[in-house]
Write a structure and sequence with these properties.
Number of helices: 8
Strand content: 5-15%
Order of helices and strands: HHHEEHHHEEHH
Number of strands: 4
Radius of gyration: 26 Å
Structural class: mainly alpha
Distance between the termini: 59 Å
Length: 278
């Protein structure tokens, strides 16, 4: 039978042994001391296994693809008296140059330029939602509105909310990643911001060329053990500083980001290596 003294010595000994790693994992699985990104139970049984959102800035307009506007066609080249914001000068309506038709058993409306999408096998798998409305004609504000729900871009992005509500199943990878092509979208990182949520939930951008994440590999003169000791010392100093300044959420998030980066060095290179893919 152990005494309080022997229990303290046992826990103290765990601090520098492999047992500490196993114990931390067991506690995390039981929800004790689990991080903010730990998986959370869903409110409803999910039917979708994954969701891929393609937001194609600069793509064709809705009135030229899946949303016919007969009234706009009637007003083609006629002067517009509508005013929005600071707009000035002569304005006129521009209708779509394309024709529309209903396709598939569902009768979904589609531009005549879509050849393969009009196949009933494909068309009847589509869901076309036409209830989204914009509040700005400026590109950065429109992007913020689409990705965060706010034209000011100060609210959490869609991915941040998903990460906040569901957590992540893989503690070695970011729960919310953003893949950009060629250039950054207008408005920049504000499109995948954590907003007023803790900094843990901000999106992690993967670069389109070169290493997806900078500084993913440690310098040749630093091995994993050296890096681990450095992070432990840094965590000690940050925890001491955090105790003197309670409620400093950004510091806690930065500490967690260091640990995540350490784990990512072992996982990300394999994930982003596409050489073995078909």
């Amino acid at each position: 039978m152990s005494t309080p003294g022997t229990r303290r010595e046992f826990l103290y000994g765990l601090g520098s042994s492999l047992g500490a790693v196993a114990m931390s994992d067991l506690l995390a699985r039981e929800g004790v001391g689990a991080g903010p990104l730990a998986p959370k139970p869903a409110m409803h049984e999910p039917r979708a296994k994954a969701c891929i959102m393609l937001f194609m800035e600069g793509g064709p307009g809705h009135m030229d693809t899946f949303d016919p506007k007969p009234r706009l066609t009637e007003l083609h080249k006629k002067e517009s008296k509508l005013t929005r914001g600071l707009e000035t000068g002569f304005k006129f309506f521009v209708g779509s140059p394309f024709k529309f038709r209903k396709v598939g058993q569902s009768g979904i409306e589609m531009c005549d330029q879509w050849k393969h999408l009009a196949d009933p096998v494909v068309a009847d798998e589509l869901c076309n939602y036409r209830g989204c409305q914009a509040e700005s004609l400026n590109h950065p504000e429109a992007l913020f509105h689409m990705n965060t729900g706010s034209r000011l871009g100060a609210d959490p992005a869609l991915g941040a909310w998903a990460n906040y509500g569901l957590g992540t199943l893989n503690e070695n990878l970011p729960g919310y990643v953003v893949m950009t092509e060629l250039a950054m979208p207008q408005g920049g990182p504000g499109n995948w911001s954590n907003g007023f949520l803790p900094a843990h939930y901000q999106g992690t951008r993967l670069r389109p060329a070169g290493s997806p994440i900078l500084d993913l590999s440690s310098p040749a003169f630093k091995d994993r053990r050296h890096l681990r000791r450095t992070l432990d010392e840094l965590a000690f100093l940050n925890q001491k500083h955090g105790a003197e300044h309670p409620g400093h959420g950004d510091l806690a998030a930065r500490m967690e980001s260091y640990e995540l980066a350490y784990r990512m060095q072992m996982t990300v290179p394999e994930v982003v290596d596409l050489e073995s893919e078909s």
